[in-house]
Backbone:
């Protein structure tokens, strides 16, 4: 019959057996040696026995309260991210509109063929089109012949078929040489 051991003695036995288990763990062919050493020292499964003795609560699952709390935190985070989604989409659309408008403005300022003010409409890809329902951008340029040097104010607004614009880009172009 075995004599009762103190907690410290059991811990030392388990720790020694666990060290033996760790030493033989990478090599699967020494499994029979590990089992015989653990049988001699009195522990059945060195790793599981040590874990049960040192932290018995760690081997159990999650409680219903813990799972509910984790789901609540995840839900709160997802709702916050979903709340930012419309703002991000709106800013992406606004940025795309500004990039297209600046592209239209750059192309228009590069090729003034005459010194006449005018306007034009462009589709969503920035290609000039007649003022129809599919026109997205409205460009207007005003040549200021009285200024020295000669300047032109170019404004690109969107949407094209309304007077209540949601966005616009303006630029002043200095004409250093007369148009051809």
Residues:
């Amino acid at each position: 019959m075995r004599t009762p051991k103190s907690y410290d003695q059991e811990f030392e036995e388990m720790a020694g057996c666990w060290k033996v288990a760790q030493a033989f763990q990478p090599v699967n062919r020494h499994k029979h040696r590990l089992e015989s050493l653990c049988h001699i020292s009195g522990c059945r499964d060195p790793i599981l026995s040590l874990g049960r003795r040192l932290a018995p609560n760690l081997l159990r699952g999650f409680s219903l309260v813990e799972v509910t709390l984790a789901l609540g935190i995840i839900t709160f985070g997802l709702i916050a991210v979903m709340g930012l989604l419309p703002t991000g989409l709106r800013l992406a659309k606004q940025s795309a509109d500004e990039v297209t408008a600046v592209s239209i403005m750059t192309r228009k300022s590069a090729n003034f063929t005459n010194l006449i003010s005018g306007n034009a409409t462009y589709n969503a890809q920035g290609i000039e089109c007649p003022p129809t329902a599919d026109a997205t951008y409205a460009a207007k340029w005003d040549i200021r012949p009285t200024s020295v040097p000669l300047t032109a104010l170019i404004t690109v607004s969107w949407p094209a078929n309304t007077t209540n614009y949601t966005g616009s880009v303006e630029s002043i172009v200095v004409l250093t040489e007369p148009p051809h």
About this structure: The two ends are 113 Å apart (CA to CA). The chain has two domains: 7-59, 94-175.
